Amino acid sequence: MSVRLYTPARAATLGTGRALMVSLHGCVQTASTLKTAGNWAATAEEYGMVVALPDAPGGGVVLGCWDYYDSNHSRTSPARHDDNLLALVSALTGRTSLGIDPTQVYLSGLSSGGGETMVMGCLAPDVFAGIGINAGPTVGTTSGQIGSVAVSQAQGTATCRSFAGSASASLSSQLTSVIYGSNDTTVATGYNTLNAQIMAGIYGAGATSTFSLAGLAGTNTAGSGMLYADAAGPRVSLIQNTGLGHNWPAGGGPGGSYVSTNSIDYPAYVTGFFFAHNRRVDRSASPSPSPTPTASPTPSPTPTPTAPGATCVTASNAAHAAAGRATSYGVNPYNPYYAVGSLDYLGQGDATVTSLQQTSATRWTKVSGC
User: Which tens digit of pLDDT belongs to each residue from 54-68?
Assistant: First the structure.
């Protein structure tokens, strides 16, 4: 599973470390599109938040989709992309150089990515403090049920609770944001209200109120908003953005495949909603100074020339990892590797051979050869 990682220059702004947002592409879309057109960078810098954009492992299912389908997802034996996402979060929160606060881990996604976001929010509520569902079908549905609402609130609630299992207690402190467009003709718009109702019901957030989109960041703030709250405040946000189709609502930027610039700035909105209402973060704590950020990995980094006398090693990615020169996660042969310190992308798979040059005691960079 390849991942585009954005590490902001700004330090953490809340709690004891940086927040992490994992954002999932939709079908017939890629993480590369979200990197260039998803409009995450400005929000990441504003909040000092790390953003991870993974590609669906193995090219995804059906049309490059995330495998959110059906009601047989399991936390005890995770598979079908669930394991990849859990491993990704574990790897990133365990990387001390990123300084991520585990109480501020969030997941969002469009379409199948939205469906997978809801699956993971139910499956691992202890991991994800907030989920952002953009035009995602409800948990328990199949690939053939996107065009019309095929489950009830009671069915969706039962499926979500069964996914959570022993982690169900963590649902009491989780947040959900749902957004969709009035012009979506791909996924039935009724799923969005249903998703909000399911999560609000599970959270015990029975008080509702409406809010205006006017004043939100973005280029198109037409539409309506609803909040579902419990006694302590908002838990679920539901937005209908008038004029938006089946697209990621970037609200700015260059645009791209299944990305709309004529929308609210959803990265800004969902991040602000999570930061304002997170029930898990220690708000009395001052953010710990974050390590100096390193360059984000790219699929094809420019090789760095080898300096005379520098330690340089050519080996398989697995050997680099075993020696502490590289890190990875996921399952071979789709597991991506990154150089320690620089986070230079080394390609996928244990057997891929790369050359690494040591530039300091804790930093290795990819070079063309030793």
Answer: 999 999 998 899 999
22 contacts: CB under 8 Å, gap ≥ 6: 51, 52, 53, 54, 85, 88, 89, 105, 106, 107, 108
Instruction: Let me know: does 214 contact 167? Beta carbons within 8 Å.
Output: no
Q: Taking the CB of residue 359, how many other CB atoms lie within 10 A of it?
A: 17
pLDDT digits 0-9 by tens, 221-261: 999 999 999 999 999 999 999 999 999 999 999 999 999 99
Closest CA to 345 of 311, 294, 306, 308: 294
Walk across the sheet containing 312-316 and list its strands. Answer: 312-316, 353-360, 363-367
User: Measured between alpha carbons, how far is 318 from 81 in angstroms, rounded to an integer?
Assistant: 22
Q: Is 205 exposed, middle or buried (0-12, 13-18, 19+ CB in 10 A)?
A: buried
Bridge partners (DSSP) listed for residue 233: 230
Q: Are 134 and 184 in contact (CB under 8 A)?
A: no
Give the count of beta carbons closer than 10 Å to the beta carbon of residue 147. Answer: 11
Instruction: Find the Cα–Cα–Cα–Cα dihedral 221, 224, 230, 236, rounded to 10°.
Output: -70
- The whole-angstrom separation of Cα 60 and Cα 63 is 7
pTM: 0.78
Point out the residues that are catalytic: 111
Catalogue all structural domains in the chain, each as residue range(s) with its CATH number. Answer: 3-277 (3.40.50.1820), 312-367 (no CATH)
